[in-house]
Amino acid sequence: MPANTKTAATPTREQIEREVAEAEQRAAMLREQIWREDEAKRQRREDAERDWDEQFLASHTLTKLEDGVTKAAQALDQELASNPLVLALAGYYAALRRRSNIRQELSSARMRVGQQPLPTQTMQTEITAAEVLELILRTAARIATDQVSDEVAGLYAGRQAAGAAAEQG
């Protein structure tokens, strides 16, 4: 029996070059497809973020912001006007200012009539009142800053989420 020997045909240089060219062409097509998909994702994200920005702009106007501040200031004024501690602080501060102004006038009047001016006193009580008011304002500012930071972080997260959701879709 003759031996059944099949020898695999050795590819020629031209065949190898053709296969390499075909593989390179497939790789280029795949790269282009990946690029197109990435570009489509990027475009969807940009479109979603732009839509979010447009909705945000439509729902937030400077007039609305100013109205919000005005209403908050009115609410604060009403609340402060009825708060016993605030009224006591305001009365105390007014008394300190009145005393300081009258002392200055008394001292000036004494000098105008030829008498010795009043001795200079430290402004410790006025500084203390100012420090109390400053402490109250600093505390209010810290609370407001925390609230605004949380709100801004929420807005940013909303915009990012809209873009990420569109990119996935």
Concise description?
The chain is built from 4 helices and no strands. By secondary structure, the chain is mainly alpha-helical. The protein folds into 2 domains: about 15-60 and about 125-169; about 65-120, no CATH class.
Description:
With 169 residues, this protein is mainly α. It has two domains: 13-59 and 123-169; 65-121, no CATH class. 83% of the residues lie in helices and 0% in strands. The protein has four helices and no strands. The chain has helices at 13-59, 62-81, 84-112, 124-168. Helix 3 (84-112) packs across helix 4 (124-168). The longest helix has 47 residues, at 13-59. It is rod-shaped. It starts with 12 loop residues before the first helix and ends with a helix. The model has no long low-confidence stretch (mean pLDDT 82).
What is the secondary structure topology, with strand pairs?
Elements: H1 13-59, H2 62-81, H3 84-112, H4 124-168
What is the helix fraction of residues, given as a range? over 70%
- Give the rounded overall mean pLDDT: 82
Strand content is: under 5%
Task: Give helix and strand order, one letter per element, not per position.
Answer: HHHH
DSSP strand tally? 0
Radius of gyration: 39 Å
Structural class: mainly alpha
Q: Could you list the spans in which at least 5 consecutive residues all have pLDDT below 50?
A: none
Q: Report the major sheet.
A: none
Number of helices: 4
Q: How many angstroms does the end-to-end distance come to?
A: 66 Å
Shape: rod-shaped
Question: In the residues, how many domains can be counted?
Answer: 2
